[in-house]
Amino acid sequence: MFVLLFLLAVPLRAQDSVRHEREPFPYVQQIIPVALIATGSVLAAEKTVNQRFNSWLPNTRTSVDDYLQLVPMAGMYVADIAGVKSKNSAWDQTKYLAMSQLLCGVVVQTLKYTVGEQRPNNGAHNSFPSGHTSVAFVGATALYHEFKESNRWIAYSGFAVAATVGVLRMTNERHWLSDVLAGAGIGILTTNLVYYFEPLKSWQPFSKSGKTSLAPYYDGENAGLMFAVRF
Fold it and tell me: Which of the pair, 97 or 222, is modelled with greater confidence?
C-alpha cells in the first residue's frame, strides 16, 4: 500500500515543469500517519479487538458526520476571507486540496473493494478504510500546512474536527476502529505528499500578472471567492 501511495505521487510531481530546490523529505512527519495505517491494518486482521472496542462505545444515530467531514476544508477558505496569512494563494490551496482528495480517494476506494471488510451494522463489504475519516483528515492536514506558520489555533483545529468525525463513524456503527485509524493515516499521508511535491506548481491560470484572478472576499455581509477577468 505504501508503494502505491508513492507511485501515485511521483507522476504528479513530474508534471511540474518548474525546478526549484526542495527541503529534505520530512520522514519524521510521516511517522504518525504511517503508524495509524499500520495499526489500522493490524486491527483489521484482528476482528476481536475491533468488536470489543466498538462494544464500549455508545450508539448514536446522526448524520452530522456527513457534513462535519467538510468543515476543515471550509475552515481554510473562511480563514482566507478573514485575512489570515496562509502559505499559498486561494488557487494553490484549491489545487492542492483537490489533488490530495483525489489521491486519497483512489487509495481508499481501492482498499475498500480489495479488502472487502464488512461494516459493523452488517452492511456492505467496503468498511476498511473509512472514507469520511480520510476526507476529514485531508482537509485538516491541508489546513495545518496552510496556517501552521501564521495561526496555530486554526492550523490544529481541523484535526479536532476530523477526530470527531472518526468517533462518530464508530458510534454510528458505520466503521470499526481499524477503519478510522487507517482512514486518518491515509488522509494525512497523501496530503503531506502533495504539499511536499507541489504538483503542477507552475500552473497559475489565475496569476495576478495575467488577465484573470481568483481571491476570497468579504464585504461585511457576503463572503465567497471572487473571479475577475481583465480585458
Answer: 97
pLDDT one-digit tens code per residue, 164-206: 999 999 999 999 999 999 999 999 999 999 999 999 988 888 7
Eight-class DSSP state of 224: E
Taking only the tens place, the pLDDT of each residue in 104-147 is 999 999 999 999 999 998 778 999 999 999 999 999 999 999 99
Per-residue pLDDT for 229 more than 60? no
Q: Are 26 and 196 in contact (CB under 8 A)?
A: yes
Alpha-carbon gap, residue 172 to 120, rounded angstroms: 9
CB-CB contact of 61 with 173 (8 Å): no
Contacts of residue 28, Cβ cutoff 8 Å, sequence gap at least 6: none
At 40, list the grid cell: 489500522
In sign, the C-alpha dihedral spanning 160, 190, 193, 216 is negative
Q: Which phi and psi (to 5°) does residue 162 adopt? A: -65, -40
The 10 Å Cβ neighbour count of residue 211 is 11
CB neighbourhood size of 137 (10 A):
34
Q: Which of 177, 197, 200 is nearest to 189 (CA)?
A: 197
- Give the cell for residue 186: 491515509
